Amino acid sequence: MNQEVNYFPGLEGVIAAETKISFLDTVQEEIVIQGYDLIELSKTKSYVDIIHLLLESQLPDEEEKQALEQMLKRHYEVPDDMFEMFKLMPKQTHPMDGLRTGISFLSGYDENIDHRSGNKERAYQLLGQIPNIVANSYRILHNKQPVLPDEQLSYSANFYYMITGNKPSIQEEKIFDRSLLLYSEHEMPNSTFTARVIASTQSDLYGALTGAVASLKGNLHGGANEAVMHMLLQADSAAEFEQLLASKLAKKERIMGFGHRVYMKKMDPRATMMKEALKELCEQKGDDRLYLMCEAGEKLMEREKGLYPNLDYYAAPVYWMLGIPIPLYTPIFFSARTVGLCAHVIEQYDNNRLFRPRVNYIGERQLLSN
Fold first, then answer.
1. In this structure, are residues 329 and 289 in contact, taking their beta carbons and an 8 Å threshold?
2. Which domain holds residue 186?
3. Do 341 and 314 share a domain, yes or no?
4. Is residue 11 part of a domain?
5. Is 260 a catalytic residue?
6. Residue 221: active-site member
7. Catalytic residue among 97, 177, 204, 312
8. Ramachandran category for residue 162: left, alpha or beta (phi over 0 → left; psi -120 to 50 → alpha)
9. 37 is catalytic
């Protein structure tokens, strides 16, 4: 049955919601977060500043920032039973599945789970707890002792410490914090849309975030950063990496870390910031091999396919240089994006309409024979 309908595969270009949270301005080439350019914010502000901006709709002054950081620290702890649960999970469990299970597990401890008015407080609590879940679910599944939070460290430094077991240098803390900031919010990607769809049913915040984890796990979304690093590790030099990419192109294989539904004619501006961070780390460690490889791949893909790096392409080697295990790249992405997801879920509740799209049916009509 053919009908005259407007059909947009993948909902590309379809406006699904009105929001005051963020906007990808392709004309001005800006990622707008509550009215501010995200890239400009990343040069002078921290991830905690962005948490306040997204949940309170304004940048904090120094007193508000310190109060927010102290509140997050009060929420670092997770139920003791959660660590016992991680010990019972199959050892091959992917960290994103551990994260998804951990968030869902927390819901059972919320006695007021159906009271939507408390979602901002839930958001702050989850922002405190999720780094603990990310780091220690992975450590327990790999037969390592959990690293408990250190409240003497900043929010981002503590997250890094729980992951690696090492306290970061000033440079490492700054770069890791910047990566969290850049991942914090990005308008309406698949995981955010998933969270808003779930919230539109009046489901709870934990459920919306659990669905978003499942979405972000896919290698066409958050999982791309892991794929990029595995690809980089297949080469030992810029020349070898160019040969690897050329071979993949000849075989018409998809190359992760390039192209974006929105940034089609230029590099993702967040990738530019992570490229600078990678160069800084390589110079500090006296090993520029990964930087040269990435730059060579960037030039080849622009020349051969007219494609440009997205954030995952340069975030992956940055995390590698920071000593972060590859399976944690996507959970870290989610942890950073939690604040943006919570802001969207709260906004969805405040002006809700149930998502219920239609389809363009292209099958046959059948008649029952007598």
1. no
2. 22-218+328-350
3. no
4. no
5. yes
6. yes
7. 312
8. alpha
9. no
